[in-house]
Amino acid sequence: MKVIHLSVECFPVAKVGGLADVVGALPKYQRELGVDASVIMPFFNRKFTQENEFDVVAVGEFYQGSALLSYELLKERNDVLGFPLYLVKIPNLLDREEIYSYQDEADQWIAFQHAVLHYIQNNNISPDVLHCHDHHVGLIPFLTKWSNDFQSLKNVKTVFTVHNGQYQGWMSWSKGIIIPAFDTWKWGLLDWDGLINPLATAIKCCDAYTTVSEGYLKELYVEANGLQNLFFDERDKSVGIVNGIDTTYWDPAIDPLIDHHYSILSVDDGKADNKLKFCKEFGLDPTLPLLSYIGRFATEKGADILPELIENLLKQSSGKISIFILGSGDAEIQQRIQAVASSYNKDLAVFFGYNEQLAHRVYASSDLLIMPSRVEPCGLNQLYALKYGTIPVVRKIGGLKDTVIDVEEGGYGFLFDDVDAEEAAGTVSRAVKYLSYADNLTKTRDTAMALDYSWNKSAKKYIELYNQLV
């Protein structure tokens, strides 16, 4: 079976969030299970493309509106990611450094999708499934069925994965003229509330859609930024498949980015050694429990309650807990965190920005990880934490409630109900008290590290879905 994954993010080529981690791992695990899986994404002028070798395997041109666009399809020469990687390069459109935030994003993603289908059709590529990830490639299921230019692809099955239903790729109907020619009787498939909505289009037109956890699928039926009725109406072709993690990259026994390796058999000493060096570097007390946050400063992630949450914890537990924050995003949230850090610099350390190696070190050094998310389709941070013996304290939402079971229910984490600083702080305090008993700590860490959240199970579920469609 030949499957082509389409996405604008793929780790380590270009990453903003969990989308990149999924696309950078799932095809590799599918290939190990016998599927001919590959990835096509836009070209970005970043470290990965600068440091690796690429061959031009196809060229082409097409009209986008009145503009004639030329593209190159580049293949990474050595399959260093464990699967074939192809990049679409279009001068002055898909050759930039940043992934998002350009004024002509709609033009970029339309051109990317047009180029992909042009390449597949004109080079006699015969995929069984086009697996589309998020709204940036949401027009693909529509174009393969209803574009006049790509009728040879109408029998190719399309799977669409919703990584985050809050972002839908809305664009004005003025962009309709640059979409590849289509059956105009089908214009309603593109429309939602007077705008072209690629996410809605994908759900209407794909052969199956998936979400990155079962819990998130059910939540989309109730709240999906205006699309909840659509998700519910199309539920017969939906399936929730929880994300996995790449255990060749996230494994404290072999991780080259952490200071001391350890396994489930040596977790106590291993984490203590990592924590000692980490705390010394950031001026924290290694004898105290270390709570960390890793992620974007966004209300979606509940980061707006972090300043109050930190202050509550440090007022109540001064000298009894240390906190480390790694993240970037909303400037106001960052300023509020900085203000708290100025008042509690003995117990709180922050790193504004993102650093991949530092993230690995935080997981290896921390005792607890806090995730107070308002929306969390799956969440990967809690899965990384579990693999590293770091106990997650999470809100009971989306994929978090699918992957973390509270210790009071025989599990290995701590859950709270609301995005509320006081409740979150109380749950952290509950976790600290529970884990202060050596037997509880050992049992919880061992259980967490023994869990299998690798991509093996999830990759098999996707393959089962492909087989049902084909």
TrEMBL record:
The top EC class is: transferase
EC number in record? 2.4.1.21
Q: Which residues form the Glycosyl transferase family domain?
A: 280-433
* GO molecular function terms noted in the UniProt entry: alpha-1,4-glucan glucosyltransferase (ADP-glucose donor) activity
| Record keywords | Glycogen biosynthesis, Glycosyltransferase, Transferase
Tell me any Pfam family this protein matches. Answer: Glyco_transf_5
State the CDD domains in the record. GT5_Glycogen_synthase_DULL1-like
| Biological pathway | Glycan biosynthesis; glycogen biosynthesis
Q: Which residues form the Starch synthase catalytic domain?
A: 2-229
* InterPro entries to which the protein is assigned, alphabetical: Glyco_trans_1 (IPR001296), GS/SS (IPR011835), Starch_synth_cat_dom (IPR013534)
Give yes or no: UniProt keyword Transferase: yes
Record's catalysed reaction(s): [(1->4)-alpha-D-glucosyl](n) + ADP-alpha-D-glucose = [(1->4)-alpha-D-glucosyl](n+1) + ADP + H(+)
* Entry binding sites for ADP-alpha-D-glucose: 15
Taxonomy, superkingdom: Bacteria
Protein family according to the UniProt entry: Belongs to the glycosyltransferase 1 family. Bacterial/plant glycogen synthase subfamily.
Q: What does this protein do?
A: Synthesizes alpha-1,4-glucan chains using ADP-glucose.
Q: What is this protein called?
A: Glycogen synthase
Q: Which organism is it from?
A: Sphingobacterium daejeonense
The gene that this protein is the product of is: glgA
